[in-house]
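2024-03-11 09:14:02 INFO queue: dequeued item Phosphotransferase, len=459
2024-03-11 09:14:02 INFO validating residues
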Amino acid sequence: MVAAAAAERVVAELREQCATPAARLDGVAAAMEEEMRAGLEHEGGSKIKMIISYVDNLPNGSEEGLFYALDLGGTNFRVLRVQLGGKDIKPESREVSIPPHLMSGNAAELFGFIASALAKFVADEGRSNGVLNGRQRELGFTFSFPVRQSSITSGTLIKWTKAFSIDDAVGEDVVAELQTAMEKQGVDMRVSALINDTVGTLAAGSYYDEDVVIGVILGTGSNAAYVEKANAIPKLEGELPKSGNMVINTEWGNFSSSCLPITEYDQALDEESLNPREQIFEKLISGMYLGDIVRRVLLKIASQSSIFGDINRTKLKTHFILRTPDISAMHHDETPDLRVVAEKLEENLKITGTSLETRKVVVEICDIVTSRSARLAAAGIVGIIRKIGRGTAGNKEKTVIAIDGGLFKHYGKFRQSLESALVELLGEEASKSVGIKLANDGSGLGAALIAAAHSQYIN
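2024-03-11 09:14:37 INFO prediction written
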């Protein structure tokens, strides 16, 4: 009984610290909106970068022709070919692994390897590598590393992330590097758009539904992009685009505010991370971190009670050993004896022989951590909706949010919690004009679609 009481005390404290009542979420949404405005005012004006994407036209389903995409964001990259001419499109794609030595070599070798794979992909069409029906091939390039963009077709690399470390590429225009490499491979192709995966998600959603004005990624990481009025961006220099619009990549993962419900577990995770005091919002809501937050709570319970029995805590002390798919499986366990929870505890943490009551405690922890994540994501979305003057009872304009990422796609209780929080924050009436839809493969398909929307043959 004493052991159970100690565990209950830890869970009760967690529930209180993670609480996200509507008033708190309203504060988060207001703080998000305020940071967005500051970031649009001038560079460095906000914790969130509010990057100008130079995408001023989103695809609308009228685009026609054959377009390509290159999606580079990790140890694999993808090349895609998309034939447009109607809403029913079936991209052909090929995934290629990057040899480890090229990830820390030089820029010419990496981009040469990518261009070589692209040349093979084009050659497999059975057509020449030259023009296509009198047109030069056009490509959308999704480059999911920090870049400073100066136009739709140029961007200099700020720094590498993930497993990449190619010094001579930093400060260089990644489009120019790719263009040079393609020319050496004899691929006559023009990069029509440089984007990141969140802008691609927005584009993929927009192609099928013109009411999509926000794109969100809720997966391993998290970010959002949206359509802003060009005249509401003080830091936008030069002539305003004819469309009057501009897609903004918020980089909301770096958002932080005193409104956020931060626990001792979040603080410890942040301090021990590779980027302490950065990406605070992402560390609260994204799939990379949820499993580890749950692990940290379980470790505290194991140190203060004996509900897990006499266990070796080595696994429980191992960072990121518990992943979000594991907590999703436990959270969704509907077996009478919570068998899946037992299996996951044994498989990942070497915790065996747990009682049903103990397994229920684990499910409750998964629920608390995930609900907080989903509700905070909803507050972030509401901040964007309010920034663009939508989602009020008097505004009947349809607002659709396209969302991609495994957390939203595969974690049902996360999705339900996010959707209910949106209704709670917007109100029953206003929420009727706001919808959410899954946008699959924004990072690949979206790049080809933006290339089409910005084609030299259309504009």
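2024-03-11 09:14:37 INFO annotate: Residues 222 and 394 are 30 Å apart (CA to CA).
2024-03-11 09:14:38 INFO item closed
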